[in-house]
Every structure is written in structure tokens, then in C-alpha cells.
């Protein structure tokens, strides 16, 4: 039992480090929204037995990378909308908990759902910050601005980066997990 807890803890630490490194690299390379955060949140909720780890994992990765971004670029902490980013990640973990069967179709569907859920929640935080004004007009302006928010100087800054990154990283995480799980099961069957 203790060995399983150690493995879970090591998996969590490894995922946090990979997520932090990836988020920092993406920020430095201006590959906005192309990262493993939603995928890791969904994976944590669906796979980790200890649900406290499932919630702590993405939030810790976000916090560590936000600290780096604050120290290096002075933009890691940016106001009320940040609470909605963290809340969106927690909701994606919860979505992963509701994934009863881990298969390719569920992973794809839940990943796209998680990506859209995160987008809706995080941009609602932008609306509440008042950047685009208040009322229905401000809410509409916020979500319209958030769809592609393409700017010529950052050609990779597209809403699609989030979905593409989420699908890619979910495929990697869940695929690697399935391969490892199958290998372990095959080893136990031989032993």
C-alpha cells in the first residue's frame, strides 16, 4: 500500500514539473494556450484515486508557473479573473472525476468539454474584471473577444491552440497511462 502512495506522489510531482516547465516554455515562446494544464486536470480527476491529489496537482502547477511569470515578467498575478482560471481548472478536475470509463471516445469528448468549460469560466472572470464593460453588452464583448483574440505579432495566439493542446496532451497522458497500465497487467499475468 505504501508503495502505491509513493508512486502516486512521484507521478504527481513529475506531472507538476512537466506542466510548470511546459507553461513557462509556452509563455516564453508565445505559444499561448498550448499546454497540458486542462489535460492534466482531466487526467488527474479521471485516474488518480486520491482526489485531493487530483485537485492539488493542476492548482500547484498553475501557482508555481504564475510565481515564475510574476518574478520574471511581472504578469503572473493579474487580478480577480485569475481566481476564475484556478476555479476553471478545479472544475475540469471535477469533470474528470465524472468520467466513468477511460476510453478514446470519452477522453476526446471530456477533453473538448473541459477545454470549453475552462474557456467559459476563465473568460467569465475577465468579464467580472470589467475590462470590456458591464452588463449583457460587456459579457457579449468579452466572449467575442475571447474566441480567437488573434493579433498579428503573436500569430500562434488562437483559441484553437487551447483545444489542440488539450486534445494532444490528453492523448499523450491517457495514452501513456493505458500503455503503462497494460504493461503492468501483462507483467502481473506472467508472474
- Share of β-strand residues: under 5%
Radius of gyration: 18 Å
The mean pLDDT is 85
CATH fold name: Arp2/3 complex 21 kDa subunit ARPC3
Query: What is the tally of beta strands?
Result: 0
Structural class: mainly alpha
Largest sheet: none
Order of helices and strands: HHHHHHH
Oligomer: single chain
Number of spatially distinct domains: 1
List low-confidence stretches: 150-156
Shape estimate: globular
Q: Please name the CATH architecture.
A: Orthogonal Bundle
Separation of the first and last Cα atoms: 19 Å
Q: Helicity range of the residues?
A: over 70%
Number of DSSP helices? 7
CATH class: Mainly Alpha
What does this structure look like?
- Pfam families: DUF6580.
- Keywords: Membrane, Transmembrane, Transmembrane helix.
- This protein has 7 helices and no strands.
- By secondary structure, the chain is mostly helical.
- Helix 1 (2-29) runs parallel beside helix 3 (51-73).
- The relative contact order is 0.14.
List keywords for this structure.
77% helix; Arp2/3 complex 21 kDa subunit ARPC3; 191 residues; globular; mainly alpha
Topology (elements, then pairings):
Layout (H helix, E strand, L loop, with lengths): L1 H28 L7 H11 L3 H23 L7 H17 L6 H25 L6 H12 L12 H32 L1
Helix pairs in contact: 1-3, 2-3, 2-4, 2-7, 3-4, 4-5, 5-6, 5-7
Keywords: Membrane, Transmembrane, Transmembrane helix
Pfam families: DUF6580 (PF20221)
InterPro entries: DUF6580
Amino acid at each position: 500500500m505504501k508503495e502505491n502512495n509513493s508512486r502516486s506522489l512521484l507521478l504527481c510531482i513529475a506531472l507538476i514539473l512537466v506542466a510548470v516547465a511546459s507553461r513557462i516554455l509556452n509563455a516564453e515562446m508565445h505559444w499561448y494556450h498550448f499546454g497540458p494544464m486542462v489535460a492534466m486536470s482531466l487526467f488527474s480527476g479521471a485516474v488518480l484515486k486520491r482526489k485531493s491529489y487530483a485537485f492539488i496537482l493542476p492548482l500547484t502547477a498553475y501557482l508555481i508557473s504564475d510565481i515564475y511569470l510574476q518574478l520574471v515578467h511581472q504578469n503572473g498575478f493579474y487580478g480577480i479573473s485569475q481566481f476564475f482560471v484556478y476555479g476553471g481548472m478545479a472544475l475540469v478536475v471535477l469533470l474528470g472525476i465524472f468520467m466513468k470509463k477511460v476510453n478514446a471516445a470519452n477522453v476526446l469528448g471530456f477533453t473538448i468539454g473541459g477545454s470549453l468549460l475552462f474557456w467559459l469560466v476563465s473568460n467569465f472572470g475577465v468579464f467580472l474584471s470589467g475590462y470590456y464593460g458591464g452588463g449583457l453588452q460587456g459579457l457579449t464583448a468579452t466572449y467575442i473577444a475571447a474566441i480567437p483574440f488573434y493579433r498579428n505579432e503573436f500569430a500562434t495566439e488562437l483559441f484553437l491552440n487551447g483545444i489542440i493542446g488539450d486534445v494532444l496532451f490528453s492523448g499523450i497522458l491517457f495514452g501513456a497511462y493505458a500503455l503503462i497500465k497494460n504493461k503492468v497487467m501483462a507483467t502481473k499475468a506472467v508472474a
